[in-house]
Each structure stands twice: as C-alpha cells, then as structure tokens.
Design goal:
two-stranded antiparallel sheet, 158 residues, 5 helices, globular, binds iron/sulfur cluster
C-alpha cells in the first residue's frame, strides 16, 4: 500500500503559478513511483485567478504587488488544502519553497525585492499546526527509497 502525500500542483507541472507557468520538478514527479500524490494549489483553491499578481506575506497578512490585501483568499486556500489532506489521510506534504502559500522555513519578506526572511506560507503553517509534515522540494531525499540520508545523495533506479 503506497502512502499518500499532498504535493504543490505547480511542482508536478500544472500551470497554476501566479504567472501562469509551473515549477515542474522531475525529482518530485519521480515520487509517483513510490507514493500516491494528491496535487493541490492553495491559491487556486482559495479562489484566485491564474495568472494573478504575485503576492507576499507581511506579518499575518498577504498583500499582492498591486497593494491589495488578499489574505482571505490565502486563508481559504489553506483551509481547503487541509481538508483535502484530511480526506486523503496525508501525513506529509511536499510544497513549493518560498511561496506565500506553500513555502516553509524561508519566504519573501513582503517588499517584492527578492529578499527572504524566516517564515512559513499560510498553507504550510496551517498544515504543520495540524500535524502534517511539510517538506520543500529540495528536501525530498528522505522520501526516496534507496536514498542515502546521511549524505542526502539520491540513488535512482534507472
Ligand atoms: Fe504552486 Fe503553491 Fe503557488 Fe499554487 S500556491 S502555484 S501550488 S506554490
């Protein structure tokens, strides 16, 4: 029985990113060999259009580059994502790093200048508060069978 993991849809190749593109990551896609993946885009689940202006967290709020407060969309998206995680029994989520929704550990600082600060996206924070482990795409080695976790080296079946 494969474990079911929540994944940021943009990492799988869905064009749900703010600019209408994706952040396809072949290592994340390769997790399909060992896991059931449930794709989610919290910003779309929260009712935002694609494309949309980029947004960044400012404290507890989320502000887009046009200066609009879009916090309510982000909170709704986080709640819908948590709901799906619970429906599918996910204990882990692989989420896109640095996003104001999906980022964990480091996010942009709210000035749209590319500067990063410690913090979590709205969805990443809610999932963690509810006991779901959030892993960024650069940290998925621990999920791959055959990976040498001491060194982080990934061994792939070819
Ligand atoms: Fe990707 Fe998450 Fe942004 Fe959606 S909200 S585009 S899944 S990083």
């Amino acid at each position: 029985q494969k474990e079911t993991i929540l994944v940021s849809a943009c990492l799988l190749g869905a064009n749900c990113r703010y600019d209408g593109n994706n952040g396809k990551n072949e290592d994340v896609l390769a997790l399909l060999d060992q896991y059931h993946l449930v794709p989610v885009c919290p910003e779309q689940l929260g009712g935002m259009q694609t494309p949309r202006p980029p947004a960044e967290r400012r404290g507890e709020s989320v502000i887009n580059q046009s200066g609009q407060d879009v916090t309510a969309f982000f909170v709704k998206g986080a709640e819908e994502t948590l709901k799906l995680a619970e429906i599918y029994g996910c204990k882990k989520a692989v989420l896109k790093e640095r996003s104001p929704s999906c980022g964990r550990g480091m996010i942009y600082d709210g000035t749209f200048s590319g500067k990063k600060i410690p913090g979590n996206g709205v969805t990443a924070a809610l999932l963690e508060e509810n006991g779901i482990e959030v892993i960024g795409e650069s940290g998925i080695h621990s999920l791959i069978n055959g990976a040498d976790n001491e060194t982080g080296t990934v061994r792939r079946n070819s």
